[in-house]
Amino acid sequence: MVYRSWLLTWLLGIQHRLGRGWYQFWQWLRWLWFRPAAPPALGTSTPTTTSPPKPSWQQWLQKLWRKLRRFPLLGAAPKPESLPGASPSRPLPVVVPSPVLPEPTLEVPSVVESYEPHWLEQLLRWLDETLYFWECKLRDFWHWLRGFLFG
User: Fold this and answer.
1) pLDDT tens profile 120-148
2) Which of 7, 3, 150 lies closest to 142, judged by CA?
3) DSSP string, the chain
4) Residue 142 — φ and ψ, nearest 5°?
5) Is the pTM of this model over 0.70?
6) Which residue, among 36, 31, 30, has the nearest Cα to 53 in the 3D structure?
């Protein structure tokens, strides 16, 4: 039984009520982190050989890469022949595979007797039924109260 409770619907609706504010907040953060570089200064007509300045996130990435390259374990491992005291490598012997014979099998017809649900599945089903029961009781009480007060 798939059932969406009114509480879950209300909690999911918060996103729509706050959506506009969050959207403006994310726009501001995006502008702050990924704002475009300033345009080059006009007036100098001499060609420059330097590349334009990189965005701050690329500079940060280059610095991080330079720091990580200092650690030798992150680089490629040396070949075993270059290690001191290594014996000369010999090619591995070629082993011809033997033909695979099918193993004798026994075929038996099988029938599923019953399905035993997992304990977590039972717990979730019980929780779903309990929430549905109390939501129905709360709904009935609310309708009764509205009829009693505003009847």
Assistant:
1) 999 999 999 999 999 999 999 999 998 88
2) 150
3) -----HHHHHHHHHHHHHHHHHHHHHHHHHHHHSPPPPPPPSS--S---SPPPPPHHHHHHHHHHHHHTT-GGGSPPPPGGGSTTPPPP-PPPP-PPPPPPPPP--------------HHHHHHHHHHHHHHHHHHHHHHHHHHHHHHHH-
4) -65, -45
5) no
6) 36
Q: Are 57 and 34 in contact (CB under 8 A)?
A: yes
Mind listing the pLDDT tens digit for each residue in 40-66?
Answer: 666 655 555 677 788 888 888 888 888
> Encoding tokens for residue 49?
């050989």
Nearest to 56 by CA among 36, 29, 40: 36
Tokens found for residue 76 = 């490629």
